[in-house]
Amino acid sequence: MASGHKACQGCGAVLAMRYALKALGHGTSLIVPACCWTVLEGEYPWSVMRVPLLHTAFETAAATASGVRAAQRMRGEDHSSHVLAWAGDGGTFDIGIQALSGAAERNEDIIYVCYDNEAYMNTGIQRSSATPMGAWTTTTPRKAPESGGKKDIVQIMVSHGIPYVATASIGYPEDFYNKMLKVRDIRGTRFVHVLAPCPAGWKSSPSHTVALGKLAVQTRIFPLLEVEGGQWTVQKRPAKPKPVEEYLKLQGRFRHLSDEAVASIQEHTDKRWHFLLKMEQLTNDRPLETPSEDSARVSSSCGSG
User: Fold this and answer.
1) Is this model's pTM higher than 0.70 or not?
2) Which CATH superfamily is domain 12-240 in?
3) Using CA of residue 17, residue 19, residue 20, residue 26, what is the dihedral sign?
4) Do residues 212 and 132 lie in contact, with contact meaning Cβ atoms separated by under 8 Å?
5) How would you classify residue 259: left for phi > 0, otherwise alpha for psi between -120 and 50, otherwise beta?
6) Tens digits of per-residue pLDDT, 114-158?
């Protein structure tokens, strides 16, 4: 990836792409549906990408990637190259989930990365099913913010029985880079869900993008994990998790939340964390961690103002 992209300052999606291609290298064919990256790479005939890139329809990233991989196989190139489908949360959680599910069911030999900025940012900050609880978007305004939580895309993908599912954050580039190195050597469908903060949609400072990527993990709102062969591994376990309020207060999209709403998000976060630890215990025969004193303190104090 060269310089000269057209992204906003502090764009997490650009950092994610840079890390991914750094790991996968020049032998990568990139499939991009309608999303921010349709614009970011530049207008024809100019492009900041140094790998072949094929633009496709919003809903067809996984189907197109499957076709490219089939063509490579017919040409005898399937062991010397990688096919990377790169889509946003709208094109993954919502519009593209049919093609993604089909590819995963067939265990197509593709890498699928969802860069998640938690709304349809390229078309005006509308909610997606990846929009978190309480968030403002243009279709969930402050008087009626998002009332549900994020769709559990990790469980959906794991249920297909594919070889590898992982989460990542641009706040931990080494972790993301190493996961992309790992998927190079795995065959079948590999799915990586990377959190990519969007200053424009999150109403945050461009200078806070990496900090938000870290805080999402440190507050356990966006845990880092891997699922290989059905075995769950929870990573980057904060010994003293930070309260979710530290993450939320840096984003204008949460500025309207009451103390009670913040406490509800904290409770949801704690329950989700315990669920992940339970999944790790069940699939790895590990002892279940009990809630720490610090974790309990965070839960009880959140929303106190």
Assistant:
1) yes
2) Thiamin diphosphate (ThDP)-binding fold, Pyr/PP domains (3.40.50.970)
3) positive
4) no
5) alpha
6) 999 999 999 999 999 999 999 999 999 988 888 888 999 999 999
